[in-house]
Structure formats: structure tokens, C-alpha cells
């Protein structure tokens, strides 16, 4: 038996990186999966490979949320799990970052997740409950130079998570956040970030001295999506190789 047998999950930002790892693991654990992204070519290829359903989904758009949720319920009759995984990162010091970049990052990373929570309340209520997993970051727990907008979005997602957990518990809906550290995904290969961050010093600050593979985060997400985490809500789960156990980086 799979950890997620009988569950229907909607995963955002699922075309590559951590999102694609979530899609694959959820399917392996027995879930029926609909995933969204704006990367149509990669999304369609993953759907063809795995059998999951792909929808084009800009998480900033309430109408796109309505379509994505509607696709999940039309295909599978219910919705039990939302993984708010979609996110973008732009490196830039405060003095140099255009305000429109700040707005874009908060629109995708924070407002997009808030819209997602709002959009799944009714179908999860109809299903008798559910689990929402918000993918934050260690940057939602500490700040980092050049990542003010990203950190603001991820700190904000922590607050949304805790408020939603309080609001939705009465409906049987649990809401938790996951805070990955150094994960080997395309997003962390941003050239501006690579030029500015001392990778050797970053790894030195870790207890487990390596970058994680995306599926190592997916296993935590799957646990939170499952009934095995039935007493977990409003909580923060770090997957950071022990980076935050000491003085940071």
C-alpha cells in the first residue's frame, strides 16, 4: 500500500525541479495527481511520462486557480491535497532591485499560495478535510544578503500558513510549511546567485555537507500530505542538512 493511496493532489510548479519530484513520488505512493506550471513543454513531457494530468497554471491568476482545481475535481471527483510549490527567485540587493521584481516575487511566492489556499477550501470541505503543504524556504526563517524579496515572500508564507491552520482546522484541513535549504534544482543555478554566493562557505556551514536531491524534500511533503501527519498543523519542517543548527551562513 502507498502512503497516499486514495488521495487526489494538486501540485503547483510541478514541471521541473522539486515540483517534478513531488509529482513522481506522489504517484509512486498511490496518489492521483494534477500538476500545474507555466512551462508548457516541460509540463506536457512530464505528464506524458508519468500519466499525471498537466494544466497551464499561473498561480497569480484566480481564474487559473479555478481551472486547476476544477480539473482535479472533474477528473477525480475530489481534492484532498494541495502542494503550494510554485516559486521564483531573483537575486538583487535592495538598492539595485527594480520594484517590479519585488512585486513579481511576492505575487508568485506569496499571493499565489494564498490564492491556492482560498481556492481549495470548498472542495476539501466537501471531501471531509485535507492537507495543504506550503513550500517555504530556510530564507523564510533567516535573512540572506541579496534575497530580500525572496525572504519577504517566504517569511510571509509562514504567517499565512499559521493563520490558515487556525482558520481551517474546524474543517479538518491541516496546513503546514516545509523549509528546504540547499536543494539541487534549476532555481538555485541562477547565474546572478552563483556569482554572489560562496558555495564552499555555504556547504561548510551545513552539518550534512552536500546539496540535497529534490526527492529528499518530497518525502517530507508526502508525509505531511498523508494521514500519518494527522496531528500536525501550523508547523514548520526544515529540510536543510542541519544548516540552521549553528550560526547560519
TrEMBL record:
Pfam families: adh_short_C2 (PF13561)
Keyword RNA-binding: no
UniProt keywords, alphabetically: NAD, Oxidoreductase
SMART domains xrefs: PKS_KR
Family annotation (InterPro entries): KR_dom, NAD(P)-bd_dom_sf, Sc_DH/Rdtase_CS, SDR_fam
Domain Ketoreductase: residue ranges: 7-186
Family (UniProt): Belongs to the short-chain dehydrogenases/reductases (SDR) family.
Alphabetized NCBIfam families for the sequence: PRK07231.1
Protein name: SDR family oxidoreductase
Taxonomic path: Bacteria, Bacillati, Actinomycetota, Actinomycetes, Streptosporangiales
